[in-house]
Amino acid sequence: MISTQPGGYRLVPAEVDSEQFEKLLAAAMRERDKGYLDGAAVRLERALSLWEGDAFSDADAGDCVAAEADRLAELRLVALEEQTDVMLAMGAHAQVVGRLKPLIERYPLRETLYRHLMSALHQSGRPAEALAVYADLRAKLAEELGTEPTPDVQRLYRALLSPQPKHHGSTAGWPPFATPAGRRAPSQLPGDIADFVPCETTDVLAPALTASDRTATAVTAITGQGGAGKTATAVHLAHRLRPWFPDGQLYVDLGGSTRHPIDPAAALAQMLLALDHPMSALPEGIGAQAACFRDSLRGRRVLTVLDDAADEAQVRHLLPGNVESAVIITSRARLTSLPFTSRVEHDEMSLHQALMLFRRVLGISRVDRDLAAAREVARLCGCLPLALRIAAARLAARSHWSFGDLVHRLTHRPRPLDELTHGPLSVRSCFAPAYHRLAEDDRRLFRMLGLSGVRMLSAPPGTELPSLAVPDVAEALERLADTRLLKVVHTGGPGAVPRFWLHGLVSAYARERAETEASEIERAAAQELRRLEDREAAVPVLPAAIGRVLAGRHGSWGPVGREPL
């Protein structure tokens, strides 16, 4: 951070925490002004996480330092106020109440904090407490300063006395309006998650879903591997956008990742029933039923969430046709043949987001006093949202456990996925459906990867592994990537051989399958491969390693291929 210069020393501004804090605060304000609340929330959380106490608390260097400390303290308070304002706009009223009460005790005359607390209490269904907060503020101001609350606070007080609801914040796009009298608006969304961690996916999709100048139905998608938090993100976004779709919100779990996905006709019937369409008048054939669905939405602003779609064919007849309505689809498949307004590949969390989730579930103090171990838990979970939530749930259920205890269990138990199961939640459930849909030769290759410990690999076109009954390894790797069991991490230029990466938890699952299903040939080949110290060097000699194991032996799948893998 410090470099020597002629005549003295110089701080590198970009590496100073106060400089980073001010840049993040400014970026958050820009995101908020654009209506991208999730982006603003992420940057505000990162900015405030840089603080570890009062500025310059261990320095006594005169008035200049004291003035700078006061300036930074004021900016920190501004950031806290902006954070609560953004959280209110996102609907996190209960969380705001818990955060504001200790702040008010520390800053008893800061009226913005009182105003936010009044709003949060009122929106949480606690209007009497909200009015009591105003009375408390008014009494303190009269006693300390002999003044009345600011006009903004007084206006909010009068609004709380009125039966009309107040809306806080907005997202760019069509303004909300009321549902016409006599028309029932279905509201089928699952409950939102109070400790949802903001992500860029919602910032990307919200403008596409609410843009007022579009000429076709907004069809958006959140795709990604199992356990990445696609459903939670879609439901959270749908709740945020409810005011823009006053004619209803439909939700259908299509079960695409299960062995028995729902039939599109059954999904259509479910949505038509919610829209008060008489089932007795439903025509024959899915095409005619889809036309009835589109006709039922004519002139209506309805948001539809199609969760866990299996493929394009399952959702093609479930899309509205009117410009006023919008759709959010989640799927493990990439769904590239549908006409999307916007599609986002939803990935693992960042380390910062993972720690934010731990803090929201377990409390800031419990995480920060064991921060290094918390980071290690996040790393061992691969920052996969479902794994992180399970880890947090297990720690919440066992208050006597530390993060270090969980690290030990994840690294020393023979089956680490046992530690990532809690009640109905299980990381295995993310990978099992994809594995069971694989052809047997692809399963053999997947188990081989788990046994070998190889995490990064590639194969030129035409590579064969006859000993494992894999006729084209390159295509098999592509199929594993299509099912989200592998991730493409590098493609290079035209004609380059792509490289694939095996997530740590997926590798653990592959080892579990191999323990019960692998053949002796697979085990012997993997054992040979594990003896190679350099894992990068292991990749091009995998067939040769299998060949050495089988030398002089006739395998049931024929001669061993010699192409490099």
UniProtKB/TrEMBL annotation:
It comes from the Bacteria. Residues 16-161 form the Bacterial transcriptional activator domain. SMART domains: BTAD. It holds the Pfam family BTAD. InterPro entries: AfsR-DnrI-RedD_regulator (IPR051677), BTAD (IPR005158), P-loop_NTPase (IPR027417), TPR-like_helical_dom_sf (IPR011990). It comes from Streptomyces javensis. Keywords: Transcription, Transcription regulation, Two-component regulatory system. PANTHER family: TRANSCRIPTIONAL REGULATOR REDD, TRANSCRIPTIONAL REGULATOR REDD-RELATED. This is AfsR/SARP family transcriptional regulator.
